[in-house]
Structure formats: C-alpha cells, structure tokens
Amino acid sequence: MSVLSNRPSRLLASACLLTLMYTSSAYAESAREQWHAQLSSGYTALADASSDLHQQATEHCTISQETAAAPLRDDWLRAFLAWQRVRFIDFGPIEQNSMAWQFQFWPDSKNLIARQVDGWMKDQRPVSPQALAGESVALKGFPAMEYLLYGEQSDTLSPRGCELLVAISAQVSANATHLVEQWAAFKPHYLENDGYQTTTISAAMHALEIMRDARLGAPMGLQGKKRRNAYLADAWRSEQSLTAIRATLQGLQSEFLPGFATVMRDAGKEQLLTQFEETLAGTLERIDSLPSDVSASLKDEQRYRGLQLLFVDIDRLASLLNGPIASELGIVKGFNSSDGD
C-alpha cells in the first residue's frame, strides 16, 4: 500500500488525538450536543409513532361502525413506548402548556381518566381535537386512549369511542410534532448555557427516583399505605407497566448515557461511569426476565421476589447517580416542578 493511501487514516488518527485533547469546556459542550441530537431523534421517533397511530385510528374507524380494538393496540403501544423513552426529560419545551401531562396524565388516584372519557362517551357534543383542547389533561394523551382500547368492554370500539380515539390521537400527534420543532428551536439556548449540563443530569436523577418510588415502589406497597396495588402503576390497563419502565431505562441508555459518558470522562471519573453503565445494563437484563406487568407478580410471592430484586437494582442506579456521581460533579439536587407541594 502506498504512502498516499495511508494519508486519510493518519489524518483520522490525528483528528481523534485532537479530540482527546479538548478542554473540559469543549467536552461539556460536546456532551450537550450529543444530548440534543439524541433527544431530537427520540422526539422524532415519538412524533412518527404518534402520527402512525393517528393514521391507523383514522383508517380503522372509517371502515365500519364497530371497530375491533386489537389491531390498534400495537400502534398505541409503539407510540406509548416511544414516549416512555424520552419521558425522563423534564425541562425545555416539554414544560410548556403542561405538555408532559398532555402526553400522560399519571398518577390517577381518583380514576379521573375513566370518568372523563365515560363522560364524553355519554355526551352528545361533536368530537374533535378543537372540542377537546380546553378539556382536562385526563381526557388527553396515552392513558385516555389506553382506556378506550383496553378498558372494560373494549374488544370493539363504538362509533363514539372511535371519534374520541381519533381526536385524542390527533392531539398527541400534533403535540409530538410541535415538540420536535420546539426542541430544534431550543438548541442554541441549550448549547450556550452551561447550566443545562446539570439540568440534564438532574432530569435523569429525578426520573430514576420516580421510577423507584412511584412507578415500582408504590404498586409494590413500599410507599404510602403500604399495600400492594397494581392500579397505582402506569399502563396497568394494558398490562405493560414493566414494559414502560424498561422503555424509560432504554431511553436513559440510548438518549442520556452517550452525553453523560462524555461528562464523566472529562471529569476523570471513568470508574464511576463504568459502574453506572454496568448497573444500568444489569437492570435492563433483570427486567427482561420479568413479565410485562406487575399484577401477577404482586399476587405471587416468588414472582414478587423478582420485583424486589428489580427495585434493588433501580435503587442502586438512582443512589449511584444521586450520591457519589452527583458529589463528584458538584450537583446539588433541587426542587422539581413535578415533585408536588
């Protein structure tokens, strides 16, 4: 091979060496660039899946008066899991107009979703996205569609149910598309402000705490009234509670971890990074061995042991990020708007 043919590879090696010599501020900026790009892909996947759901709902609901719910459940689940993968982000455009609540009203301790949907099912008002725009967030988003597709007597959708499904899916699709656009517009502000490094890591910290305490711990009876209750989990009607948690863990792995690794390497904390990566991978391996829902595991002590082990894994992950990693990076956990009063 000639000397000239080796030139591109030598230039590439030189470029890689220069990359490794970047200053800490360059690394931090690179981390935010990675986060923005990864989350842009995640939001786009949500928009695409939501658009497909709306299209399928529209097509199925115009075929006949009675529409089978089963063919639409897979489309709902794909879109719902796309939301779960980016659900951990709690800042930026998602904060506007209670957008996160419009995607998923949860927890719903008063069963407002069923009451709101049933109210509209009995109503005679025309159904449209515009008509629903001013209604409660309990009537919007994935849980309301889940109730229509998986609730009682949901093997088929009535014409009224179809109208609601089409209107709600149109709202979700429009919101997802708007989120993609607003996240792109948010890029200069996100990249120019160093504080968003801490904000992004804090979002992951908070997501893991919610996952441990509310999404898993509460139905297991480890919080509140200390009683096992599957209805406290999200996606209990579709029996996809653990599938949803798995999707959020996957989102942390694919959308958060690359930029986070840059921050940790820049800080010289490769050992803690490796520990976090291995704990996250182990938690995903654990959840892969469990059923898609918590209900059966809450009733069977042997299966419940599997939930306990998963809880321990998520607790380790949350404690690692909130403890030694946060300390090394100088992050002090602050108030989050979704923490409540």
Automatic annotation (TrEMBL):
One of its GO terms (cellular component) is cell envelope. Its main location: other. InterPro entries: Imelysin-like, Imelysin-like_IPPA, Imelysin_sf. Gene3D superfamilies: M75 peptidase, HXXE motif (1.20.1420.20). Keywords: Signal. Residues 1-28 form the signal peptide. It is found in: Cell envelope. Residues 41-318 form the Imelysin-like domain. Pfam families: Peptidase_M75 (PF09375). The keyword Lipoprotein does not apply. This is Peptidase M75, Imelysin. It comes from Halopseudomonas laoshanensis.
